[in-house]
Amino acid sequence: MSNPSLRGLQAFEAIGRCGSVSAAAEDLGVTPGAVSQLVRNLEQCLGLTLLERRGRRVELSSWGRLYYQEVAKGFQQLSHAANVLTRARNETGIVLSALTSVANRWVGRKIFDWQSLCPESSVRILGQEQEPRIGIEQVDFRITYGRRAYAHEHVANLFTDWVVPVCSPALIANRVLDGPQAILKFPLLNVEWEADYKASPQWRDWAALVHADGRQTFSGLSFALSSSAIDAAVNGRGFVLAQVSMVLDEVASGTLMVPFDIRMKLSESYYLAWDRTALEKPFGQKFHKWLIGIARQQELLSAPPTGSAT
User: Domain locations in the chain?
Assistant: First the structure.
């Protein structure tokens, strides 16, 4: 069987979509006779009858209905591909997707530095837990974590974060903490990510690091989002093992404090993924370079001071 002509497929798809030969001809800007001839050529190529006459009407045969379902999908995909190119050409703004907590507590804070650097640029930040289909959905760049990064074609390592116990100063006001183990006597807030991530360090891990009593049990309130657990700590609800990148501002302002700076490293890194066409946008390459740059700075800020316990 030879490959059918594109014009024949267009004529057949138009009949199926428009419902008649005359409507298909008007849609394509040709005569009804031309449409009929193109479909006859297609039928000869396939060796099948695609159209059946019912009086003065033409309907798809059983073979025609089956074939139309698949042909229509192909034309829809072609239309989608054209829309993707049009959007990429016409939309000059940058769309950055990031995990919700990263969007709220890291890059969402850094973006003001970018805006000062490039005030003419336009950036939209999306907080998303599910991985977007970069290049198909309206996303140019994606900040994600761990193995999920490898679902994307173009990927670069950003930084590996660390966690450290933080709390509101009000939580321990008028209390004496005689050592790191004393933290474990306070309410403990837990961060439990989705199952397809490698687990972040938990309180039992930190307790082992500071040589606490191994018989102690750990319970408390758990949050799926790091940012929610940090918000609870800000409100004086307990200690949380917070990612350093997400609490630097609060610690600097005194909203949160670090009684004992004993950090644990996350098991995986954050990554940047991008669509190749994003680099062709105005400011696209510069934005990519800027994200990599602030991540390198964060790598140094998140790591424990030289010589401290980890």
Answer: 6-90, 94-160+269-302, 162-265
pLDDT digits (tens, 9 = 90+) for 181-239: 999 999 999 998 776 777 789 999 999 999 887 667 777 789 989 999 999 999 999 99
Q: In whole angstroms, what is the distance from residue 266 CA to residue 42 CA?
A: 60
Residue 229, class by beta-carbon neighbours within 10 Å (0-12 exposed, 13-18 middle, 19+ buried)?
buried
The whole-angstrom separation of Cα 186 and Cα 207 is 13
Q: What is the pLDDT of residue 207?
A: 93
242: Cβ contacts below 8 Å, ≥ 6 apart:
163, 164, 165, 166, 226, 229, 230, 233, 256
Could you give the CA distance from residue 20 to residue 24 in angstroms, rounded to a whole number?
6
The number of CA neighbours under 13 Å toward the Cβ of 117 is 13
- Please provide the CATH number assigned to the domain covering 6-90: 1.10.10.10
d(CA 155, CA 144): 10
Joined tokens for residue 163: 């966690």
Going across the sheet that includes 162-166, the strands are 222-223, 188-191, 239-243, 162-166, 264-265
Whether 45 contacts 7, CB under 8 Å: no
**What are the φ/ψ torsions at residue 96 (nearest 5 degrees)?**
-110, 120
Same fold, 94-160+269-302 and 162-265: yes
CA 137/CA 126 separation, integer angstroms = 12
Query: What is the pTM for the complete model shown?
Result: 0.71
Residue 93 DSSP one-character state = S
